[in-house]
Amino acid sequence: MTEKLRKSIGIGLAGTFLAILSGCGEKEEPLTITVMTEQFPVYAPGNGEAWLDAIEQETGVNLQITMTPTLEYAATVESAIRGSKLPMVFTANESILSKESFFAYLNAGGFWELEEYLDDYPNLKEFAGEEIWANSEIQGHIYGIPRLRIRPRYAAYYRKDWAEALGIAPPQNLEELYDMLKAFTLEDPDGNGVNDTVGLVNSWQSHGARQWNGVQMLTTVLGGPDSWRYETTEGKMVPDFSTDSYLEMLRWFRTLYQEGILDHSFAFLTSVQRQELFIQGYAGMIFSVIDDGPELEAQMRQMNPQAEIAVLPLLEGPDGEYRLNGNAGYNGLIVFNRLGEGAVRDEEQLREILDFYNTMCGEQGQEILNSEKEEGNSYVQFMPMPAYVRREDDSELQSTVYDCVEEREQYVVTDDSTGLYSETYVRLRNVLNEKIQKASIRFIMGEIQEKDYWEEYRMWYESGGKNVIEEYTKAYEQKLRSTHLE
Predict the structure, then answer these.
(1) I need a labelling partner for 36 at 20 to 30 A (CA). Which of 107, 312, 381, 455 fits?
(2) What's the CA gap between 60 and 31, in Å, rounded?
(3) What is the per-residue pLDDT across 73-131, written as a single tens digit (0 to 9) for each?
(4) Spatial distance between the Cα atoms of 388 and 148, rounded to a whole number of angstroms
(5) Rounded to an integer, what distance in angstroms lies between the CA atom of residue 305 and that of residue 283?
């Protein structure tokens, strides 16, 4: 933590602790919970008002919500942290959870630790489940309610109608996938007599995109870690990009790039642009998240009613087994602030708020959350929502997606860095990530060779990567001892 950051956080602490100690007056009726969450640009700000009214009527709680556009949200939260002006409750997405300011505030006692309270709120505890609660721990403590997400979320979609027109069966391994994508590029799959299609359109504008752009998926298929793995034989944490499996994945993409099967704009396209190119019928496949499929197909059919897409089957690895990259089962946390004028003032008030969330995790609460939910409702970000809900009017593809989710749960590979803390990585994350991303892209594009890639990895290692490995290793081994895992 920098000295400047220490001072900025320390400014509000004296008044904060006085507020906590003096919070023994009569509680307000009804309970008012102040909340800050992000507003997504595709969602209208007014959506969800009826939904909120139903929640307040059921619980007797008054919700005061501040919405901030998602592109400004992380900066807004950082500003509130530095000024000790957070509300009672706020949503911490993955970006915020990686910020130095978040960890500085946490280490200054800024968030309520929840683990000792959960047994008193059985609906809430059961809603997330023991595994997800454990995954959401930070430095050995639970600091927020995990926002549930499909674990085997990363997938790929391809043009089923194109494959059937060319007599191609669903691919079962990387070799068959290559053959299909090559045919999509060269064999006029849309039948218009023009050479105007490409096998794969992709996007890699940020290091984090590798979760869903096929990089982590194929590395995992080939036997590599899902981001990080603790190697017992070496007694240390190992990043995926230091393995032969990762380089083999890069070679696969490099072949596609060299043969024109991978669109050459992959390093510059945004995620939205890649989707548009797929929807418009230019590309035969995209890597994506599994819950995007039905909307992609619906938009595609507005242009071509005969278009049909399918989920890429699980691919067999070199050993004939299935392996799938996933996530920790949650997407950020609903966090309870402990410092500043807007904080949860004491344990009594914390318990009242936890009781609210316990109610919303119960049968009646979940019925309201799911039956009253409106399309385009950003308010769901601070509510305990299930990862997905099957509905009677689900399309055939939507039902298939949920079938795939349930089938793939057993094949998800765990990222062993989940919940671990590395001071070096928090401080140097962007610099270190950019080194690996650029080296990977340059290798795919043929600008560097294998020896050059490993030289770039050596530079990553010497620029702070060595410390990240050591800190993750220490944190992982401490976690093993504390949970008695083998």
Answers:
(1) 107
(2) 7
(3) 999 999 999 999 999 999 999 889 989 999 999 999 999 999 999 999 999 999 999 99
(4) 9
(5) 17
